Amino acid sequence: MSCDHLICARCSHPVSEGRCPTCRAAHAELHGHGSIPPALVLAGLVALLFALLVLRQLAL
């Protein structure tokens, strides 16, 4: 769903414009501002796996 097509019940303007606090809250909820990007999570997991493999080789 996109906020481009939603009309705010409070101010009667498109939610994408963010004219009132209700619009801004709905826009933030739909777009998930502040969340960690999946690519960053994947990169972190790959780095952790690499570090574990290096530590395993050093322990042998």
Tell me what you see in this structure:
By secondary structure, the chain is mainly alpha-helical. It has helices spanning 21-31, 38-59. It is rod-shaped and about 65 Å long. The mean pLDDT is 85.
Topology:
Layout: H1 21-31, H2 38-59
Summarize the structure.
With 60 residues, the chain is an all-alpha fold. 55% of the residues lie in helices and 0% in strands. The mean pLDDT is 85.
Rounded radius of gyration (Å): 21 Å
How much beta, percentage-wise? under 5%
* Euclidean distance between termini CA atoms: 52 Å
Mean pLDDT score: 85
Quickly count the helices. Answer: 2
Helical/strand content category: mainly alpha
The helix content, as a percent range, equals 55-70%
Shape: rod-shaped
Low-confidence parts lasting 5 or more residues at pLDDT below 50?
none
The run of helices and strands is HH
What's the total number of strands?
A: 0
List its traits:
60 residues, mainly alpha, 2 helices, single chain, rod-shaped
